[in-house]
Input
Amino acid sequence: MKTAHRLAAWVWIALFAAACGRATPTTGWLEPVQNVAPGVELYRTTDATLVEPPAPVSAFLLRLDPVKIRLESALANGEVMGAERVDAIAARHGAVAAVNGGFFNTRNGEPVGLLKVAGELVSDAAATKGGVVVRETEDGRTTLVFDRISARVVMTARSGDRTWTVPIDGVDTTRVRGRLMLYTPAYHPDTDTAPNGTEWVLDGAPLRVVDIQSNVGRARIPRAGMTLSFGGLDLPADLADLVEGVEVSFRTEWQTAGGVPVDHLESAAHIVQGAGLLRRAGEVIRDWSVENLRADTFTEMRHPRTMIGVDQHGFIWLTVVDGRQPDHSVGMTFADLQRLSDRLSLTDALNLDGGGSTTMVVQGKIVNRPSDPTGPRPVSDAILVTSR
Output
């Protein structure tokens, strides 16, 4: 009878834990957990069967309790221009842990995908690719929503009785001839542009054109304003009409494949775009043609990978997989990432920037082995874990 009572008690405890969303992952393929901080657990695996055919593999995984931690995106050096190592970004923000975030231009550190940081859109994206939306609920819980997302900015100008709209070709990114760029205070103190262009300094409330300069470059960006920059001196009519005093405003036009409400995107504190939405709301995704991802060089080739996901109990997972080091870890294909997602019971998952950028920092130390021979690669942005 005592045995029966003891068994019943264990069954009740297991059911209660599962109901409360605190079930632990199956640990046969994982090394013993390291409790890093409240709500932050670190695992490692070297299970060769995670890749097909089996080969050396090394992955580090953070399991995060969304009630006990906050997740946020942070820019390198506190601005869009330039790059910085993940451990330096984490240290500056006092983060418990961190991984690299979105894709970026390795020449100058500018993000090349959609990126929203602390409520501000600092990089737009015409291409619809997988992204993760980070929001905080009123009861103090970090929630993640996954979808394929794109965003473009449109300017509305007003002068007297006339109102007209002008599409913005890029936000906080290198200017191209014949294109109109918008620079926010997150970019840099100035636009870092060459002289061969026209620039409009916008300031005040509401925003108005307060200064115009041609063939000068490096226009200032007001702390509470923005700056427009056109590559070239021969202006289209709609831009030629932007004289001093004209009032301007901006709106973001969002597109999603899965129907995430626009108000969620507008109110989100952070949005990070990756390349390769792996799972969404329990659906396993195997077609990435809409994201224009090549099979031969990307989805079906083994690379170092960084992945973010949510499991069936609501826990958030940050994972880095080392690669390009045959004796240590070969990396993973998308099929391998799906296999790993199965092991973790992920309902949602996104492939972030990988390759030489793949880095995980825990308590100030890089725990994985980045693949670049020169050491950890400076990146444009990182996803930070902080305690509540």
The first strand starts at residue 34 and ends at 37.
